[in-house]
Amino acid sequence: MVENSPLPFPEKTKRKPKTYWPQKYWAVTLPVTSSLLSIVISHVLLLGINMMSTSPLNAIHKIIGNYAKNQQ
Predict the structure, then answer these.
(1) Is the dihedral of CA 27, 30, 31, 33 positive or negative?
(2) Residue 1 in contact with residue 10, Cβ under 8 Å?
């Protein structure tokens, strides 16, 4: 054993195999969160695209009626 080691416990410096597995909580949480996030983003994008592709409410093409048809 080394007398002047900077480590507090030099006997614990032996290499151990690193077998790290994430918790089961994250195995469920990450896929669910990512799928819900993608659904929310897709709905927001779809809503935005639909809003941009429709004409405004005060457009003459939205007005329907006999008087409006005579004005065109």
Answers:
(1) positive
(2) yes
Residue 67, domain member (yes or no):
yes
Residue 54 tokens, joined? 């429709």
With a CB cutoff of 8 Å and minimum separation 6, the contacts of 72 are 60
Token duo for residue 7: 């480590």
Q: Which domain holds residue 35?
A: 27-71
Dihedral sign for Cα atoms in the order 13, 17, 23, 28: positive
Number of domains in the chain: 1
pLDDT per position as a tens digit, 36-68:
999 999 999 999 999 998 888 777 777 677 776
Whether residue 16 lies inside any domain: the answer is no
Q: pTM to 2 decimals? A: 0.52
Give a yes or no: residue 34 inside a domain. Answer: yes
